[in-house]
Amino acid sequence: MExxxxxxxxxxxxxxxxxxxxxxxxxxRTKFFSSSPGGRTLSTSSTSSLxxxxxxxxxxxxxALLLKHILQLVCNASAVFDVLPESQVGKFTK
Length: 94
Known about the structure:
Layout: H1 9-29, H2 49-75, H3 86-93
């Protein structure tokens, strides 16, 4: 993964956590994971173990891509520094 070898372990952990939290946000608050490219729904209550495994692999893949891009942003001096709860977002955007 780009730039991970030159990253401080504590910072890498923080960036990894951010990527995972962004993936959880995409899964729980958006329709990003609601269907696969083939049109099959991934988030139904009657999914098979294979579909659940595919869904987990997709989540892992998305988290890895987010981490890759976060590390690239850090390298280019444009980093995500905070992930705020919804109640605090308006305080910093005005």
